[in-house]
Amino acid sequence: MDKIYDIGLGNNDVNLRKKAESDFVSFWDDQAKNLSWFSPWEKALDWQPPFAKWFVGGTINASYNALDIHQKTKSEKSAILWEGENGESRNITYGEMFSQVKKFSNVLKSLGVKKGDRVTIYLPMVPELPIVMMACARIGATHTVIFSGFSAASIKDRVTDSKSKVIVTADGGYRRGKIVKLKDVIDEAIKDSEFVEHVVVLERTKNEISLSSKDKLWNDLMNNASDQCDAEKLDSDHPLYILYTSGTTGKPKGVLHGTGGYLTHLYSTFKWAFDIKDSDVFFCTADIGWVTGHSYVVYAPFLHGATQVMYEGAPDFPDASRMWDILQKYRVTIFYTTPTALRMFMKFGDDIPNSFDLSSLRLLGTVGEPINPEVWKWYFKIIGREKCPIIDTWWQTETGGMLISPLPGLETIPLKPGSGTRAIPGVNISVVDENGDDVPDNTKGYLVVKNPWPGMLLTLWGDDEKYKTVYWSKYENCYYPGDYALRDDDGYLWLLGRADDVLKVAGHRIGTAELESCIVSHHDVAESAVCGIPDEVKGEVIIAFVVLKQGVFDTKILEKEISEKIRNDIGAIATPKQIYFVSKLPKTRSGKIMRRLLKAIANNEKIGDVSTLEDGAAVTEVQSAFDDIQKSLKKNSG
Ligand code: ATP
Ligand code: MG
């Protein structure tokens, strides 16, 4: 049994959980009162499965709750400490954010944007990105942010799907010291579009751009805009944004989020999970193009009037010390990142983080993929210096905010590396079998959510039917996230990867996460992805892809050691038929391993939608690895 890390922050409010267990609706009703409403709701939850309306009859505005409410006490407080990739910095106060957001709200109005209209945003990680989002929210327009690494074709799909009249972009953005010409990408994406009326262009990199009659420069518009603009009083379920999922398992889905329920969920989870204090400096490394950026960069920290660091560029640019340099420079107290980033940092060795003063840190978090216990321990020891709790937060674009996480701001709970511990209060989670019955402890099954929760998506944009099929058809009145999980003897939840990634070898079901964790626990391994290929006898045999740490080469010995480790830790059944060493794995732009791609290549199937793929070169490498495997298998059998 692994060591249990008992380092809670000492907060312990047992009553809150009790209340949530006895009546989740009235529990969330209380939580919603933490926000500022223009008019109160008549009903906390209207549940017409599978459609939930939270705080029906109440009116609210996200931008009002993010900015207006702080002006009396915090107008001089830093909202964003922005670090440019090239070392520039900007300190933007709550007062400045407020006036910029009101001005841009007026800009949007002057371009004909009205309540309910969609606005597409394609901007790099600059403060103007949250400014535009909050300006949309202020006037009741629905924003749809597209990650600034996406191609023209992906933008075209999304702009067409959301029917945006206005696009806000920049001339360019910096990535690894180079300029990515964003405006050119937009020009290409909308060249045949009939309904895009205006493109607003922020000058960030000052590269040459061509301007058409649709194009307006940010500064020209802002210089003429008034900074008076009251926040629109919107219904609680007014659509705040559409955001497309990362596309790890298939074509991205247009998730639609509302306002009052979503903000309630964020306000509470930010407080419970991050134990946020007025003096904290929060830093979430997620790009705003993903849900983590929407929820825990843009909305949640602002609801709490928190100070945060926002970084423009690549985490390892100009070198592997960049993150630690930022943590030291801004005296960051709470750091929230992803397992994929941590595995990368780990690959560079301990000396780099060890040479920085990280003593300001008090709390660490992770999100996006299962975190391998080995990586968790490294994070705990090398970054947290054995004094910071780590919150492993499980959630999805669809859930809006965290559903499973340790909550140091609420209660003390001993931590186990690799487990998200339990569901947050007010959320009812189970692990069930194919029939929907709870599985016994320590048995793998499907994660489900048995009640609606306030951050829950309203629907999939323009496709209620798909919403019903994807999330609500496997089990009656139960939300199906598509993840595989287990609850241990102590009631701790372990996320074991995507349900459709499960390997079935000789009648055994083996979770990809479990197997990959075992491989990554070898000290020379940085990353790993496993998948199955069909086998006449066993159903499936396992193939493992392994990326080694820097400076490690002797693969012959490693192959043996890794196989042995798997045999010892999991069992002979899980031993890979072949281990293949590659320099990178195919990942989504949000940094997740795209196992469906490995599977498709292995099964000689069409690769499907790869608009969210990070680096095509990884696919080529994997493809040739498979070809080699196939050849050697044929040779052996022939
Ligand atoms: P798509 O739905 O298009 O395939 P995606 O699921 O990768 O994309 P997101 O909504 O960004 O898009 O990711 C949510 C998923 O990420 C979860 O369903 C889960 O598989 C994984 N995940 C997130 N956080 C954790 C965590 N802490 N532990 C394990 N898995 C996690
Ligand atoms: Mg998903």
UniProtKB/TrEMBL annotation:
Q: Which residues form the Acetyl-coenzyme A synthetase N-terminal domain?
A: 16-66
**Domain spans labelled AMP-binding enzyme C-terminal:** 514-592
Decide whether keyword Ligase is in the record.
Answer: yes
Q: Which UniProt keywords apply?
A: ATP-binding, Ligase, Nucleotide-binding
Question: A single Pfam family, by name?
Answer: AMP-binding
Q: Which GO terms describe its biological process?
A: acetyl-CoA biosynthetic process from acetate; carbon fixation by 3-hydroxypropionate cycle
Ranges of residues in domain AMP-dependent synthetase/ligase? 72-453
**Any GO molecular function:** 3-hydroxypropionyl-CoA synthetase activity
User: Key word Nucleotide-binding present in the record?
Assistant: yes
EC number(s) given by UniProt:
6.2.1.1
What the record says about family reads: Belongs to the ATP-dependent AMP-binding enzyme family.
Protein known as? Acetate--CoA ligase
Organism of this sequence? Nitrosopumilus adriaticus
